[in-house]
Design brief:
Protein name: Zinc-dependent peptidase
GO molecular function: aminopeptidase activity; metallopeptidase activity
Distance between the termini: 39 Å
CATH architecture of one domain: 3-Layer(aba) Sandwich
Shape: globular
Strand order of the largest sheet: 1-2-6-5
Pfam family, one: Peptidase_M90
InterPro entries: MetalloPept_cat_dom_sf, MtfA_fam, MtfA_N
CATH topology of one domain: Collagenase (Catalytic Domain)
Structural class: alpha/beta
Order of helices and strands: HHHEHEEEEEHHHHHH
CATH superfamily of one domain: Collagenase (Catalytic Domain)
Amino acid sequence: MFRFLKRKWITGRPIPEDLLRILKRKVPVYQLLPEKYRALLHKRVVVLLDEKHFEGCGGLEMTMEKSVIIAAYAAILILEEKADYYGDLQSILVYPDDYVAPVHQYNDGGIVEEGFESRAGEYWQAGIIVLSWKDIENQLYGEERDSGQNLIYHEFSHFLDDRYGLTAGIDDDGDVMRDDEWTQIIAKAYKRLKFRRGHTFLDKYGATNPAEFFSVATELFFQKPQKLLQENKKLYTLLQNFYGLDPIRWK
C-alpha cells in the first residue's frame, strides 16, 4: 500500500524541469513519441528513478543524466504496462566499457569448464541488470546510432522474458514445448534466423538461443520497426500486441 501511495504521489506531480531537459536533449526517441506517450514516459521514468538503484562501476561516475537516459529507454518497454515497473528488479550496474564476466559451460565430455568473456551487458535473475555505458553512447549518438541496436532495450527485455516466461516454451534448437500462437511465431522466426533461411535485418546474435532472439527482435521492433514489419509481419504484430505499442507510427 505504501508503494502504491508513493507512486501515486510521485506521478501526480509535474516532471522536474531538469529531468525534462535531459529527456529532450539526450533521449532521441523522446522527440518521436506522441504526446500521450510522453506523459506516460514521464511517470514511468520518475518511478524507476525512485525505486531502482543506478550504480556506476569500474570507475564510472553515475550522474543523473546517465540514470535518466537508461530509465527512459527502460520505460519505453513498459509504457502500456499497468503498474509493475520491472517488479523485483533492484539494481542497474553501469560500467564505462565492456567488462569481463565469468562463464561456465559444458565441453563435449560433459565437464563444466570455467572461463571469462567480455560483455556489453547482461541480466541476472537476482534482480540486477549490467550495462556498458560506452555501448549505450555509441548506439544512441555515435557510430552505431543507425545499427538498429539498443543495449538498454535488449537487457530490460530479458527481464520481461524471464518474468513472463515468454520464450520458456522453446528449446535452443527452436523446437516447441507449447502450442500457443506466441510460441509458434517466435519459434519459427528464431529457427529462420538460426539456420540462415533468407535475408534478415535481425542481428545474428539472436540465433544464440530463444531468449536472445526475443531481445534482438525487441531492439529491431523499436529501433527499425519498418524493417521488422517488412521482414516478418506476424512477428511485428506479436510484439506490437505484447508491448501495446506501434512504433512504426512514431517515424
